[in-house]
Specification:
There is one protein chain. By secondary structure, the protein is an all-alpha fold. The chain has one domain. Helices cover 59% and strands 0% of the residues. The protein has two helices and no strands. It is elongated and about 80 Å long. It starts with 9 loop residues before the first helix and ends with a helix.
């Protein structure tokens, strides 16, 4: 037995009318947090990514201009 395989008693299966759809007893519940807080965090990360992309774009433009001038 491990986190991907576990034993289920025959009596338990019979009690569920032989439904074999058993939930994983080792599954860890994840708290995803408040949706509004997550959205604010996402928007901040998106702004930071946009700043980094713009900085990278400017670096590439500068490098290409130096190459064409030299």
């Amino acid at each position: 037995m491990n986190e991907y395989a576990w034993k289920v008693a025959a009596a338990e299966i019979a009690a569920r009318n032989y439904n074999l759809d058993c939930k994983n007893p080792h599954e860890v519940m994840v708290n995803h947090g408040d949706p509004e807080d997550l959205m604010l965090e996402y928007l901040e990360i998106a702004r930071e990514m946009e700043k980094a992309q713009n900085a990278l774009k400017q670096e590439l433009i500068d490098a290409l201009q130096q190459t064409s001038e030299g």
